[in-house]
């Protein structure tokens, strides 16, 4: 990709004394417009998890425990690559869901909301990220559906 940019070629500042005795600076700047080739880094994807989700949340496995929302088994991310900065979610068109992480065996914490097919979720904005994730609150599904998780790096 070629991008036009202004490059600062030289800058010259020369102090001189005015007839009044004050010091002033005369400055001159030269600029040049040049085309610069900027190589775009190709986005890389690696499949790190797949899970089957129900079309509705399952009953909690531990009655009376808060935060037991899930419609899938736990997705344990398989060998995320070095430099991972986002997750890409692949699911059937028209299906929306939330992603929770297992804080403890008894409690899940929301991580991403309203995830749809092709959405990339930024890990930098998610300090509570965990490699053990669950699908919850699905909408738009009438039967079990598959969700694939790709590491973006």
Structural description of this entry:
This is DUF2141 domain-containing protein. Keywords: Signal. With 153 residues, this protein is mainly beta. It folds into two domains: 2-37, no CATH class; 45-152. 0% of the residues lie in helices and 55% in strands. The strands form three sheets. The protein has a four-stranded antiparallel beta sheet, with no helix packed on it.
- Major sheet, described briefly? 4 strands, antiparallel
Measured distance between first and last alpha carbons: 21 Å
The shape, in one word, is elongated
List unreliable stretches of 5+ residues.
4-13
Helix content: under 10%
Number of helices: 0
Any idea what the radius of gyration is?
27 Å
Strands ordered across the widest β-sheet: 3-10-5-8
**Which structural class is indicated by helix and strand composition?**
mainly beta
* Number of spatially distinct domains: 2
Q: Say how many strands there are.
A: 10
């Amino acid at each position: 990709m070629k991008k036009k940019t202004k490059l600062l070629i030289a800058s010259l500042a020369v102090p001189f004394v005015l007839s009044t005795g004050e010091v002033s600076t005369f400055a001159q700047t030269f600029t040049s417009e040049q085309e610069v080739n900027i190589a775009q880094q190709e986005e890389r994807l690696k499949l790190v998890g797949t899970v089957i989700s129900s079309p509705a949340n399952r009953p909690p496995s531990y009655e009376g425990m808060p935060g037991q929302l899930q419609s899938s088994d736990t997705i344990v991310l398989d060998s995320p690559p070095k430099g991972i900065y986002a997750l890409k979610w692949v699911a059937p068109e028209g299906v929306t869901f939330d992603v929770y992480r297992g804080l403890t065996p008894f409690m899940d914490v929301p991580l991403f909301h309203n995830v749809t097919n092709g959405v990339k979720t930024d890990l930098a904005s998610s300090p509570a990220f965990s490699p053990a994730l669950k699908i919850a609150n699905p909408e738009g599904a009438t039967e079990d559906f598959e969700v694939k998780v790709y590491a973006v790096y």
